[in-house]
Amino acid sequence: MLRVFKAFLETTPQLFVQIYILMQHGKTNCYQYAAIFMSLCGISFSMVDYQMSLQKSLPDKGEFHVTSKFMYLFYKLLTITSWVLSISLITLLSVRISVILLIFLWICGFTWTLKQCTTFCKSKKMEYLYRTVVGIILIFTFFNIKDRRTKVCISIYYATHTVVTLGILFVYMFWKPSIIKEIHFTIVIILTILHLVLGIIFLVVYYKHFHPTTYCRPQACLDEVDGMTGQKDRVKTSRFQNFLMP
Question: Domain limits of the chain?
Answer without folding.
Answer: 2-211
